[in-house]
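note to self — DONT lose this again. spent like an hour looking for the file last time. sequence + predicted structure for the chain T wanted, 53 res
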Amino acid sequence: MNRRKKIKQLLEAHAKKANAKKAPRKKSTYVSKADRLKLAAEATQEPITPTEG
């Protein structure tokens, strides 16, 4: 019984590691279309500001 249990634990551990490798990485968070437009507008406004010099 012990031998079976150990072998089963090893096989489960290997399967768990293999599944973890196949699993997708953390996905980037969703940014709504309105937020994307807002960020784009802010990005275009920044270079226009005059610099003192």
